[in-house]
Design a protein that fits this description.
Elements: E1 3-4, H1 13-25, E2 38-43, H2 49-60, E3 64-69, E4 77-78, E5 91-92, H3 93-101, E6 106-110, H4 118-122, H5 125-134, E7 138-140, H6 148-161, E8 168-173, H7 183-194, E9 198-202, H8 211-214, E10 218-219, H9 223-227, E11 232-236, H10 263-266, E12 273-275, H11 288-291, H12 298-318
Parallel strand pairs: 1-7, 2-3, 2-6, 4-5, 6-7, 8-9, 8-11, 9-10, 11-12
Bound molecules: phosphoric acid mono(formamide)ester (CP).
Length: 320
């Protein structure tokens, strides 16, 4: 595996899940793979979980780790070719990427969507430049349209906690005061479609996800109806993906508090587990009692970020 952005990059998901379970039993089993090798983790945006879990995973594999926060201490980077660079950006990605590649063996990149230009965001401009110009294996640590390390951790968590062979998994939009990217729901939908689950997506009209990710998954606009008999509720806010309303791409088009996940709605489910990738705004996305309930999996999900990242970097190291 040379790049990691989509579920298909891992090949058969059941084998990847088996590998995750084995690594969870002995997370240092592949410590030899990273000896005298370096992972460079580049953050264009903030992070808590990804920053910590990916470093821990790299160390599980015996890698040295270098973390670069591009916007704190590095030269400000231009990402578009053809720009006359007489503004505040001192260096172009086209030089910075091959330079950074000199100092490492694999590269993780976090670069969020700008949420103003749908075509630019969905072309994965920044991540693609790293893939094209670094000559190194590259993995997304949440790029413009996808967060595959999160979705893989979510799938591992569902596999560990499911009570029936083919659980009903509901991806529900929930309100948020700010415009957030579509990367997490995109990847969650993509990975759940690739896995053996009954996926239902629920959101207000106008929040339809890109067909590239959501495919022909069932969409239910009535959130309460979607929750009926669900085994897992996965809550997330996202901004307008611009599929049915191109003019509203990246905007907040609803703040309807009736979509907050609360115990009354959870009571409609099959005693569902509650999931969210974090960070989460309490009593906006989900009420205190639901996130604090014994059925909340938000901490095991975060813990599995170390496992998903270990599997992914192991696969990348094996490709060197
Ligand atoms: N879930 C997740 O990616 O968290 P961070 O943004 O804190 O890394």
């Amino acid at each position: 595996m040379k790049t990691f952005l989509h579920a298909s990059d891992l090949g058969q998901l059941d084998l990847a899940l088996q590998e995750a379970a084995e690594i969870k039993k002995d997370r240092y089993a592949f410590e030899h793979l990273g000896k005298h090798k370096t992972a460079l983790l580049i953050f264009f945006n903030n992070s808590l979980r990804t920053r910590l879990s990916t470093q821990k995973a790299a160390r599980n594999l015996g890698l040295d780790v270098v973390v670069l926060d591009v916007n704190q201490g590095a030269w400000k980077l231009e990402t578009e070719r053809g720009v006359i660079m007489d503004g505040d950006k001192s260096e172009h990605l086209l030089e910075a990427i091959p330079v950074m590649a000199q100092y490492c063996d694999l590269i993780g990149v976090r670069s969020f969507a700008g949420l103003t230009d749908r075509a630019a965001d969905y072309s994965e401009n920044v991540l693609t430049q790293f893939i094209l110009h670094s000559g190194r294996p590259v993995f997304s640590m949440e790029s413009a349209t996808a967060h595959p390390l999160q979705a893989f951790a979510d799938l591992i968590t569902i596999e560990e906690h499911k009570r029936q062979a083919r659980p009903k998994v509901v991806l529900t939009w929930a309100p948020h005061p700010r415009a957030l990217p579509q990367a997490v729901p995109n990847s969650f939908a993509e990975w759940m479609r690739a896995a053996d689950v009954d996926l239902v997506v629920t959101h207000p009209e106008g929040y339809e996800l890109d067909p590239l990710f959501v495919g022909d998954a069932r969409v239910e606009y009535d959130q309460r109806k979607a929750f009926e008999n669900a085994d897992f509720i996965y809550a997330k806010n996202w901004s307008c993906p611009g599929v049915t309303r191109p003019e509203d791409y990246g905007k907040v088009i609803s703040k309807d508090a009736d979509w907050t996940v609360d115990s009354e709605k959870m009571s409609l489910t099959n005693d569902a587990a509650f999931m969210h990738c974090l960070p989460v705004r309490r009593n906006v996305i989900v009420t205190d009692d639901v996130i604090e309930s014994p059925r909340s999996l938000v901490i095991p999900e975060a813990a599995n970020r170390e496992i998903s990242a270990t599997v992914v970097m192991k696969r990348l190291l094996e490709s060197l």
